[in-house]
Amino acid sequence: MHVVLAGGGTAGHIEPALALADALRRQDPTVGITALGTERGLETRLVPERGYELGLIPAVPLPRRPTPELITVPGRLRGTIKAAEQILERTKADCVVGFGGYVALPGYLAAKRLGVPIVVHEANARPGLANKIGSRYAKYVAVSTPESKLRGARYVGIPLRRTIATLDRAAVRPEARAAFGLDPNLPTLLVSGGSQGARRLNEVIQAAVPALQRSGIQVLHAVGPKNELPQVDNMPGMPPYVPVPYVDRMDLAYAAADMMLCRAGAMTVAELSAVGLPAAYVPLPIGNGEQRLNAQPVVNAGGGLLVDDAQLTPEWVQSTVLPVLADPHRLYEMSRAASEFGRRDADELLVGMVYEAIAQRNS
Hints:
14 helices; 7-stranded parallel sheet; 45% helix; 13 strands; Rossmann fold
């Protein structure tokens, strides 16, 4: 069996694809896996690092919403669809699994031409253009939220790395806090704006740190590798403030934390819900509003808070986040609500859909 994954471009597309690849290999170590990608995407580093084959196709960026530019897409796609077809033919692909983005659409169209079964996974609450088109050709469509508008979709969640999906935060907490130089017993706020950081979150939390420390709260702050690390002057006897450029073990960061301040990308929301970590979500103020939609269901369930980027201030952190961190019972209830909404088995459910699609073709 050979499965081709189409999810290049951003970590939000690549990570679920790689989590599915890992799950496929756990079930059958002999399965062949090829990921479609372009020369300029993160997949050029992430896919080989995880030990999977990368098949490169030309990049054809897609408009985020219907515009006059959309008319030119079919002509620009011809070459990249042909390149995708050649990869499907070379690998004798049994199934194409797409995760959206500009790599997915040529994968879907090539699979349709060749009669290869298609499985679509949509991570965001508001589907992108590629998956809207791909879902027309696929009998198997998986989504991350029960509120999805994609026709005939199954709610499975987002495939997660096993280190996250199997994380027991309470059991790992002592090791995690020691790894970051945190106090083993103090309430802990984790702050991260994603893999590149977020200047807005950085500025607000740096201004709020003294008040948090005075209230007995310690802070682990992933600043982002391209942002300047703040100067730290931890006074003796005060809770630690630990800024780091980047966290490559998010499982440990989640285990160390009692709450998180973060953006609301689909992957972030899925991971925090799966491990039961409450969060104050600050949706990215640009784009088509999907980040607010990503966070809304878990917030409605009681597993998080939601604040507009423009309303995020040091005063808001002090008035809204600090009281939660100071209340163990409320933290427990929010953690339970988040975990009840989260899905840890999305990778296995998606593997099942891949096998269903292949079996239907062969029947």
